Amino acid sequence: MKRRIVLTGAFIGMVAIILGAFGAHLLKKYLTVDQLNTFEVGVRYQMYHALFLLFLSTRKELAEKTVKAIYNLVVAGVILFSGSIYLLSTKDLTVFDSKIIVFATPLGGFLLIIAWALLFFTILKRKS
């Protein structure tokens, strides 16, 4: 499981850097300042959670079941939250109907919050 978490964190981080560069250099010509700022929010949160996964892989005191739950919540949350932000911020460049994913961003954010809360309360419950 640790290997999968590290690989996923590294992949999500790598993609965040690629998308950040893509936004800063290529999309700058096509998006408004607000759209570009929104796109960058997706990149930022994606990178935060790539680092969170790398941190998670170092936690030896967590049960395997808890680690898997946090991992799944983070991966799903990043896909829904950052992915929907990328699509919504670039909707003027595509024929994508943004109404399809209107609930993806808050749902993804909620999953990310649950992942952090699960880590927090799991460690809080520990006696030492």
UniProtKB/TrEMBL annotation:
Task: Report the InterPro entries cross-referenced here.
Answer: DUF423 (IPR006696)
Q: How does it sit in the membrane?
A: Multi-pass membrane protein
Where's it found, cell-wise?
Membrane
UniProt keyword Transmembrane, yes or no: yes
Going by the UniProt record, its keywords in alphabetical order are: Membrane, Transmembrane, Transmembrane helix
The record's Pfam families line, in alphabetical order, gives: DUF423
Q: Which parts pass through the membrane?
A: 5-27, 39-57, 69-88, 100-124
Tell me the protein family, please. Answer: Belongs to the UPF0382 family.
Q: Please give the name of this protein.
A: DUF423 domain-containing protein
Q: Which organism is it from?
A: Flavobacterium procerum
The lineage, from the top, is: Bacteria, Pseudomonadati, Bacteroidota, Flavobacteriia, Flavobacteriales
